[in-house]
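Quarterly update from the structural biology core.
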Amino acid sequence: MVASRLTLTNRPENLRLLEDFISQWSKDRGLPAARLRGLELAAKRIFRHLVDHAYQPGEPGSIAVELEEKGPRLRLMFEDDAVPKNSPENPPGNPGGMASPVDAPHLNALERLAESLIYYRTADGKNRLVVFLN
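Predicted structure, tokenized:
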């Protein structure tokens, strides 16, 4: 199955565009309501975390979201261009970036929803979080 991708700016009002994207993607695949709720919850929490914590106030940024069916699992990928925490550009104590998304208390629910969480930096310096949902 081919992945579907949406790129948004890091503005809170873009949450509605993300919700519409997920809703249409799920409808096109006949996703059951229970799976849709889990997907929506995970995506909303990650997006809000990125908007609220990954960027400095007023700092422009880009957040890409990708959805894909991988057999019985759903693959949800977020990629952002924020400076990661504890990097030379963003030393400890400054807001911004994610050292690891599971370090954030309000994202702990992801561990209950997800089969697996993978965070890494890409070769081009972006943060990438991949979440596999059952």
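The chain has one domain: 4-133.
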